[in-house]
# Entry
Amino acid sequence: MARNAAERKAEQRARLETAVAEQEPDEWNETVCLHVLASPRWRSGEIGKAAWERLGELRGYKSSRDSHKNGRLKK
# Structure
């Protein structure tokens, strides 16, 4: 039997919630990161910070951890 759009979306959300709960942030893809950042439940905590940094890595930006060496900003 075919599922309707609401059922498919609910399954997608469940898969994303499972990924956040069971995977390390360095395993997340862009979709998982965006889900975390769109969720008020996580966006302002440590998980939100991890999602923000991972999204930057996926999009080719250096993380704040990579930008500093011995307390100095890399150029």
About this structure: The chain has a mean pLDDT of 87. The longest helix spans residues 5-22.
